[in-house]
Amino acid sequence: MIKTIKSYVYLTMPDRGILVFENTSEVIQSENILKAEGWKIRVMGPPPEIRSGCDLMIRAANMKLTIDKETKNIVNISGGGCPDVPYLAQEMVGKTLAVAPAPRKIGHTLCGYALQLAYEEMIRRCSL
């Protein structure tokens, strides 16, 4: 029987499969392990027929990371609705992209995961 499902990992290598998790922390840990082993994976919300609780993917898509273009200092983190967003902001705002902790290292929710994606894109665009 499936309990609360928040996210699942879809394996995209020739041996395909779907991993379903009960919470986002398990998703993040599994993603780290699979990527370290060289698997190409994609994380997404579960299909509607097995989803329960609130759908945090909509809120996660609203996570924003703002930096000062000249100094690369993080000046604002906004969006989401997860309980770790204020903590993520506290730990990251005021630090440069090069010094701030990666959201995936300190966050444990879909909002933290979405912020990680924004963080990675910001690093890519800033060529760090």
The structural domain count equals 2
- Helix/strand-derived category reads alpha+beta
Distance between the termini: 45 Å
What string, H for helix and E for strand, traces the elements in order? EEHEHEEHHH
Helicity range:
25-40%
Binned strand content:
15-25%
Give a quick set of tags describing it.
single chain, 128 residues, alpha+beta, Dna Ligase, domain 1, 2 domains, three-stranded antiparallel sheet, two-stranded antiparallel ribbon, 37% helix, globular, disordered N terminus
Question: What is the element layout, followed by pairings?
Answer:
Layout: E1 7-11, E2 17-21, H1 24-36, E3 41-44, H2 56-60, E4 64-67, E5 74-78, H3 85-92, H4 103-106, H5 110-126
Antiparallel strand pairs: 1-2, 1-3, 4-5
What would a concise description of this structure say?
The chain has helices spanning 24-36, 56-60, 85-92, 103-106, 110-126; strands spanning 7-11, 17-21, 41-44, 64-67, 74-78. The chain is α+β, with helices and mostly antiparallel strands and 128 residues long.
Report on this model:
By secondary structure, this protein is α+β, with helices and mostly antiparallel strands. It folds into two domains: 7-53, Dna Ligase, domain 1 (2-Layer Sandwich), CATH 3.30.1490; 58-126, no CATH class. The chain is 37% helix and 18% strand. It has five helices and five strands; from the N terminus they run ββαβαββααα. The strands form two sheets. A three-stranded antiparallel sheet has the order 2-1-3, covered by helices on one side. Strand 1 and strand 2 form a beta hairpin. The chain is globular, with a radius of gyration of 15 Å. The N and C termini lie far apart (45 Å).
